[in-house]
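Duplicate of earlier report; DUF559 domain-containing protein input re-posted below.
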Amino acid sequence: MPDGFDPLLVRAVQLVDCVRRHLQVSPDALLEAAWGRVDRPWLLKVLNLSSRFADSPRETELRLLLRAVTKERQLKLSEQVPVYRGRRLVTTFDFAIEPLKIGIMYDGQHHWEYDQRQKDARINLDLALEGWTVVRFAAATFSEVVPRMVELLDRPR
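Output:
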């Protein structure tokens, strides 16, 4: 759970992200279904923090952390950003700060399998050639999201 966030709120955002992404349930449909059952101001806060792009609960947590860091610096955090070399899709970043060409990904367990590691290495090379700074977080580095991103964003350019 991200530090400084109410665990219940984070779990609610993760759940709403999931139903929006995988069941294509709209925020309006959620508001209508919750009418008289769920505190409306609280649900509106959850919906404001939610996204239809999150692929996993960890990605939701990462977005919440990144949103706080980028908002402080008046930077726009984009989600699911495709990157091409010519006409070939290299990858789709989970998150990106496009003007700075910083791409951010959460690497789940499957990224540690041999074939995926080889693919990720090729992707990193292509992204470097396109001028991107690639930031990959995993379970072991998740506690470092905020300090690492602060260090990256606050360094002189």
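The CA atoms of residues 124 and 134 lie 7 Å apart.

Merging into the original ticket.
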